[in-house]
């Protein structure tokens, strides 16, 4: 007989003895408790149940809730399923230069609408549309004939009154006239001189000059147009003439030029601290869709009040415009170079989870299991967060954290190293324009 047959016979003999022993124990149990089981009838069970129905219901609820809670916090391996697929990143410790991004509008450093001071007609236009003018350059000449004649008349009277006064001084010295006559002559001389100066000022209104250096815009009047001393200049409109309502011309200072933008309220303290620590704050500006060329400038002023409607403060910066490529009204993107946060713990902003206990992050241990740890976000910046509460080099979950629980195992996605590098790299800034 082979060894296999011997072993099988031994196993069957042992199994038969075990079954026989179980049979004897079952018979003994039935013989002992069967009388008690037969004594229980339906009426007694019903009475006991009705008497203790609330206790039984409460006991069942407690057992049910305890079972659910146990299964939730300590799920079986069958319910846990496989490892959760996630992407992770390392907590990086480094110095983080802060560049605040915003949008704004290019505005002229100085802009003047040229309007008449008197009602008159345009005699001559001395500039062309789009011409560069300097402060004091003659722009328009109005019909000055009446004002010039009046000025010459009053100027002659003033000169004559001055001569009369000088002659009166000589006569008083010789006692030919009284001192009162001299006083009257002096008053007359001063009065006529004042009238002549007033006529000179009135005459100057006929010669409209540029109050600033800049570029002239579209000219809205023509020789012979009637202009009025009002807030608008209106020319006649008919089937053969062009009508325009507005200033005679607008002079805009384009070099240097300004840009106005807003920054959120949370960054005000950061900017004010920077202004105290250094003389100027630098900005880079790009206009339109041209993100490759930027213009460098400096902050001129931070407004002295916050707009409560949007929770932001206005900032004005000045940038050179030597090539006159920037015009007022253009949409601009601004990069304001602020301070640097030293030894910052940096993670992608996606890692931060908002929970009833506050902000947390899932940290991956050496066994590929996750643990939820509370953290504090110090600063959010362009898709990354500066935090405290973790250590440099710890691995945190970036994507796939929706169904995670503490203690669950994770499986690293293959593309995770690329995402990690992208999450921790600094944002690219536009190339400054070479002057």
Structural overview:
- This protein is of the alpha+beta class.
- The protein folds into five domains: 1-36; 40-74; 80-95 and 342-432, conserved putative lor/sdh protein from methanococcus maripaludis s2 fold (Beta Barrel), CATH 2.40.420.20; 100-109 and 253-340, Efflux pump adaptor protein, beta barrel domain (Elongation Factor Tu (Ef-tu), domain 3); 112-251, RNA polymerase II/Efflux pump adaptor protein, barrel-sandwich hybrid domain (OB fold (Dihydrolipoamide Acetyltransferase, E2P), Beta Barrel), CATH 2.40.50.
- It has eight helices and 25 strands.
- It has helices at 3-39, 42-51, 53-73, 77-80, 145-173, 179-204, 268-277, 416-424; strands at 84-90, 92-107, 110-114, 120-125, 132-133, 138-142, 207-209, 214-216, 226-227, 233-234, 245-246, 249-253, 257-264, 282-287, 290-302, 312-319, 331-348, 353-355, 358-364, 370-374, 376-381, 384-388, 395-399, 410-412, 431-432.
- Strands 1, 18, 19, 20, 23 and 24 form a six-stranded mixed sheet that branches. It has a six-stranded antiparallel beta barrel with strand order 2-13-16-15-14-17.
- β21 and β22 form a beta hairpin.
- It is rod-shaped and about 165 Å long.
- The model is unreliable at 233-244 and 415-435 (pLDDT under 50).
Question: What count of helical segments does DSSP give?
Answer: 8
CATH class of the largest domain: Mainly Beta
Q: How would a crystallographer describe the biggest sheet? A: 6 strands, mixed
Taken from the alpha-carbon principal axes, the silhouette is rod-shaped
Question: How much of the polypeptide forms β-strand, as a percent range?
Answer: 25-35%
Assigned CATH architecture of the largest domain: Beta Barrel
Low-confidence parts lasting 5 or more residues at pLDDT below 50?
Answer: 233-244, 415-435
The CATH superfamily of the largest domain turns out to be RNA polymerase II/Efflux pump adaptor protein, barrel-sandwich hybrid domain
- Average per-residue pLDDT, rounded, comes to 81
Number of strands: 25
Structural class: alpha+beta
Radius of gyration: 47 Å
User: Domains counted in the coordinates: how many?
Assistant: 5
Distance between the termini: 104 Å
CATH topology of the largest domain: OB fold (Dihydrolipoamide Acetyltransferase, E2P)
């Amino acid at each position: 007989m082979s060894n296999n047959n011997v072993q099988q016979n031994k196993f069957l003999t042992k199994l038969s003895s075990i079954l026989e022993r179980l049979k004897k124990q079952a018979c003994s149990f039935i013989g002992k408790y069967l009388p008690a089981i037969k004594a229980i009838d339906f009426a007694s069970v019903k009475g006991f149940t009705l008497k203790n129905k609330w206790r039984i219901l409460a006991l069942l609820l407690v057992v049910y809730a305890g079972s659910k809670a146990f299964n939730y916090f300590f799920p079986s391996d069958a319910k846990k399923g496989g490892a959760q697929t996630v992407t992770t990143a390392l907590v990086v410790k480094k110095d983080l230069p802060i560049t605040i991004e915003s949008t704004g509008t290019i505005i002229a450093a100085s802009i003047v609408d040229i309007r008449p001071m008197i009602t008159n007609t345009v005699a001559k236009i001395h500039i062309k549309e789009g011409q560069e003018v300097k402060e004091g350059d003659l722009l328009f000449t109005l019909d000055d004939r009446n004002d010039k004649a009046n000025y010459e008349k009053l100027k002659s009277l003033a000169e004559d009154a001055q001569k009369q006064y000088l002659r009166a001084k000589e006569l008083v010295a010789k006692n030919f006239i009284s001192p009162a006559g001299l006083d009257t002559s002096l008053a007359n001389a001063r009065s006529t001189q004042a009238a002549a100066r007033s006529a000179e000022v009135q005459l100057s209104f006929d010669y409209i000059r540029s109050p600033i250096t800049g570029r002239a815009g579209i000219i809205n009047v023509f020789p012979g147009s009637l202009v009025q001393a009002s807030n608008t200049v209106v020319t006649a409109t008919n089937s053969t003439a062009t009508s325009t309502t507005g200033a005679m011309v607008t002079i805009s200072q384009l070099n240097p030029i300004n840009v106005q933008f807003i920054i959120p309220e949370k960054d005000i303290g950061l900017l004010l601290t920077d202004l105290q620590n250094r003389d100027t704050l630098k900005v880079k500006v790009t206009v339109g869709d041209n993100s490759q060329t930027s213009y460098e400038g400096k902050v001129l002023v931070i407004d002295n009040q916050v707009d409560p409607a949007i929770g932001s403060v206005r900032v004005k910066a000045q940038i050179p415009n030597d090539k006159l490529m920037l015009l007022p009204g253009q949409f601009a993107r601004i990069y304001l170079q602020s301070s640097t946060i030293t030894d910052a713990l940096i993670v992608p902003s996606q890692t931060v989870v908002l929970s009833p206990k506050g902000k947390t992050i899932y940290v991956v241990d050496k066994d590929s299991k996750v643990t939820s740890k509370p953290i504090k976000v110090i600063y959010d910046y362009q898709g990354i967060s500066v935090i405290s509460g973790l250590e440099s080099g710890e691995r945190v979950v970036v994507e796939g954290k929706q169904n995670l629980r503490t203690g669950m195992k994770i499986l690293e996605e293959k593309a995770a190293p690329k995402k990690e590098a992208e999450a921790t790299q600094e944002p690219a800034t536009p190339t400054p324009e070479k002057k």
